[in-house]
Write a structure and sequence with these properties.
The chain is of the alpha+beta class. It folds into three domains: about 70 residues, RNA-binding S4 domain (Structural Genomics Hypothetical 15.5 Kd Protein In mrcA-pckA Intergenic Region, Chain A), CATH 3.10.290.10; about 70 residues, 2-Layer Sandwich (Pseudouridine synthase), CATH 3.30.2350; about 140 residues, Pseudouridine synthase. The longest helix has 12 residues.
């Protein structure tokens, strides 16, 4: 009996959310089901490359890096998932032309397969559009977050748009509902973030001191849109949150550090309050990528793309 394998070489592009991770931790996340000893072995042997060069396990990956991953053996359960093709699915289109498309990603859908998820938005789109020559994610959103997500339809568009993200030339604003009455004068959260794996190999993020060598500079701008009071639950605050850096779980952890966690957040939030909110109708995290400002990758025209609040969030506020 042969060992199941991911049969072909993969060339993976590091996005903003993965920037700064150790190479081995990044591969543990991507190659779910592959023994860690084997991951270290393929790194040591030089089969894993960063931008065509050798690297070691502790190398930090950077935005835009190309990671070459050789064929690797996986567990039977993971192989079974890989053997099942993603179902074709289209998503609500906010904008589309020959260069890129912007979709309204629903909450609960991963942007790509991996980390125990057999497929995501990009695999479903490729399946739904078999004649498309090129479809690649420009950036990421957390699985629980809804809203604007960009997909490049040409290599040139992908390169251009990712460069805008890397140079902080885009404007990304989210709508978040937090617990309590958020102070209107707390408009900037400037606190370094550190990514790590907890005891269950789950990716976690925390705020660290400004002089911590492992901390990554992270800046979030906060604007109070509305304070919403519920007669039994108490105060919540709807915020417009603009991120100047695109770190993993940045908004969730920064707002947690400000002592105003996001409603429905099952990783950094208030679990008892989340149970109360679920009874009131909020059964997901209230974080939505509402507005994205970019320059068109071909014409340079300034664009603002909106995704209005989905019904389950708008309806919760309306009640």
């Amino acid at each position: 009996m042969t060992t199941p394998q991911i049969p072909s070489v993969q060339n993976l592009t590091i996005d903003e959310g993965s920037e700064g991770q150790r190479l081995d931790n990044y591969l543990f996340k991507i190659l779910k089901g592959v023994p860690k000893t084997h991951v270290h072995r393929i790194i040591r042997s030089g089969e894993v490359r960063i931008n065509k060069g050798r690297a070691d396990s502790s190398s930090k990956v950077k935005f835009g890096d190309i990671i070459r991953v050789p064929p690797v053996r996986v567990s039977d359960s993971i192989q079974e998932k890989l053997d099942k093709p993603a179902p074709g699915k289209e998503f609500p289109i906010l904008f589309e032309d020959d260069y890129f498309m912007a979709i309204d990603k629903p909450s609960g859908t991963a942007v790509h397969g991996g980390s125990g998820v057999s497929f995501g938005v990009i695999e479903q789109l490729r399946r739904a559009r078999p004649d498309a020559k090129f479809l690649e994610l420009v950036h990421r959103l957390d699985r629980e977050t809804s809203g604007v997500l960009l997909i490049a339809k040409r290599r040139s568009a992908l390169t251009n748009l990712q460069a805008q993200f890397k140079e902080r030339e885009t404007g990304k604003t989210y709508l978040a509902l937090v617990l309590g009455n958020y102070p209107a004068n707390k408009k900037v959260i400037d606190a370094p973030l550190y990514k790590y794996l907890d005891g269950n190999e789950e990716r976690r993020v925390r705020v660290v001191a400004k002089d911590d060598p492992n901390g990554m500079k992270s800046v979030t701008l906060v604007k109070v849109r509305e304070v919403i009071s519920h007669r039994t639950f108490g105060d919540t605050t709807l915020l417009e949150v603009t991120i100047k850096t695109g770190r993993t779980h940045q908004i969730r952890v920064h707002l947690q550090s400000a002592l105003h966690v996001i409603a429905g957040d099952d990783k950094y939030g208030d679990f008892d309050k989340n149970k109360q909110l679920a009874k009131l109708g909020l059964k997901r995290m209230f974080l939505h990528a509402w507005r994205l400002q970019v320059a068109h990758p071909s014409t340079g025209e300034a664009m603002t793309i909106f995704a209005e609040l989905p019904q389950e969030l708008a309806g919760f506020i309306a009640q």
